[in-house]
């Protein structure tokens, strides 16, 4: 089967990328911006919370080695999906919990997973994760790619 893509917004993209890169079957990741109205935004522009974009991680994966559902589990585990437009100290819609579906199958799987998580008792508050159709992805500057790996950080810990 051909490689597939999944895109997630889980707060600060550095930590989310680090977590998702650890999943066996993930071929590559890149961080960037999606879901907004500004073309080719810079990191500084996205931080103003005026572009509409979320910091996001685009994951390329081998569906023969890892399921989309497994990636969803890693996504839920790497952030708090009950926070609206924030993750820890990072505040603004650019840090929103988001799943950017690349197909009808991904959207359906994400909606099922969100319902299961909400009913599981694993979270005490409502799940605020938005599930939307993936749009154009604008990669962040190279300095943001594999941020922790480039700095020798093996476990960045919670935000």
């Amino acid at each position: 089967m051909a490689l597939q893509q999944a895109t997630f917004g889980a707060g600060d993209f550095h930590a989310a990328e680090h977590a998702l890169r650890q999943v066996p079957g993930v071929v590559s990741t890149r961080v960037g911006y999606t879901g907004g109205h500004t073309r080719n935004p810079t990191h500084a522009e996205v931080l103003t919370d005026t572009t509409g974009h979320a910091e996001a991680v685009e994951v390329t994966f081998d569906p023969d080695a890892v399921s989309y559902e497994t990636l969803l589990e890693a996504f839920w585990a790497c952030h708090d999906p009950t926070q609206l437009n924030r993750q820890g100290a990072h505040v603004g819609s650019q840090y929103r919990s988001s799943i950017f579906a690349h197909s009808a199958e991904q959207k359906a799987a994400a909606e099922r997973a969100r319902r299961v998580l909400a009913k599981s008792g694993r979270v005490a508050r409502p799940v605020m994760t938005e599930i939307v159709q993936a749009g154009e992805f604008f990669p962040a500057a190279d300095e943001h790619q594999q941020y922790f790996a480039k700095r020798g950080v093996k476990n960045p810990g919670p935000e």
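Strands lie at 4-10, 26-34, 54-61, 86-87, 90-91, 97-101, 130-133, 138-139. Residues 4-150 form a domain with the Peptide Methionine Sulfoxide Reductase; Chain A fold (CATH 3.30.1060.10).
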